[in-house]
Amino acid sequence: MAAKKSAGKTVTVQQVGSPLRREPSQRQTLIGLGLNKMHRTRTLEDTPSVRGMIAKVPHLVRVVDEA
């Protein structure tokens, strides 16, 4: 059974905080989002798992655009 993909729902996030002196799980969350250096941006599929990852590190990322 194949899962249906959402058509065109994306969210763009930018890293605005450093993972230095943070919990290792927060650094791993940033890596999972595809962010590892300051001011990098990624456009990701808007799924509940991505939203949960963003909610875990709101002090380190900024949502730039929701399309």
Question: Can you put this structure into words, describing what you see?
Answer:
This protein has helices at residues 24-32, 48-56, and strands at 10-15, 41-45, 61-66. The longest helix is centred in the middle third of the chain and has 9 residues, at 24-32. The chain has a three-stranded antiparallel beta sheet with strand order 2-1-3, with no helix packed on it. The protein is globular, with a radius of gyration of 12 Å. It has 67 residues and is an alpha+beta fold. Helix content is 27%, strand content 25%. The chain is built from two helices and three strands, in the order E-H-E-H-E. The model has no long low-confidence stretch (mean pLDDT 91). The chain has a single domain (10-66), classed as Ribosomal protein L30/L7 (Ribosomal Protein L30, Chain: A, 2-Layer Sandwich), CATH 3.30.1390.
In short:
The chain has two helices and three strands, in the order βαβαβ. It is an alpha+beta fold and about 70 residues long.
